[in-house]
């Protein structure tokens, strides 16, 4: 899993797989389709190959995404972004605050 941040566009791209150029067939908005700040990138087969998060400096919302646990661990290691999540990894107060 690879996290790439574009500070000029304020966008985080997370690649789950090594995607060749043109390998992303389409992107879906999670949930009801009205979520324009994050998306799921899919291969032609429908397999999830990555995610994107726009406005990342304001935080990223992982709630309800497939791979939420792995994404949370990746963003935690990075330590640069505030993360909203439902994944329970650490009962510490700082972790609980990020779930609100």
Key terms:
100 residues; alpha+beta; five-stranded antiparallel sheet; two-stranded parallel ribbon; 7 strands; 17% helix; 29% strand; globular
Account of the protein in words:
The structure is a single chain. This protein is α+β, with helices and mostly antiparallel strands and 100 residues long. 17% of the residues lie in helices and 29% in strands. It has 2 helices and 7 strands, in the order ββββββαβα. It has helices spanning 68-78, 93-98; strands at residues 2-6, 11-15, 26-28, 38-42, 48-54, 60-61, 83-84. A 5-stranded antiparallel β-sheet has the order 1-2-5-4-3, with helices on one face. Strands 6-7 form a two-stranded parallel sheet. α1 links the parallel β6 and β7 (83-84). The longest helix is centred in the last third of the chain and has 11 residues, at 68-78. It starts with a strand and ends with a helix. The model is unreliable at 91-100 (pLDDT under 50).
What spatial order of strands do you see in the largest sheet?
Answer: 1-2-5-4-3
Question: Uncertain spans, ≥5 residues at pLDDT below 50?
Answer: 91-100
State which percent range the strand residues make up: 25-35%
Share of helical residues: 10-25%
H and E order: EEEEEEHEH
Mean pLDDT: 81
Brief summary of the model shown:
By secondary structure, the protein is α+β, with helices and mostly antiparallel strands.
């Amino acid at each position: 899993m690879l996290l790439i941040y574009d500070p000029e566009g304020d966008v985080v791209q997370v690649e789950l797989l090594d995607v060749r150029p043109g390998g992303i067939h389409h992107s879906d908005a999670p949930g009801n389709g009205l979520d324009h700040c994050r998306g799921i990138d899919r291969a032609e087969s429908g397999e999830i190959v990555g995610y994107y998060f726009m406005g990342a400096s304001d935080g990223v919302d992982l709630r309800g995404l497939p791979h939420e646990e792995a994404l949370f661990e990746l963003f935690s290691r990075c330590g640069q972004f505030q993360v909203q999540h439902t994944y329970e990894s650490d009962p510490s107060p700082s972790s609980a605050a990020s779930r609100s």
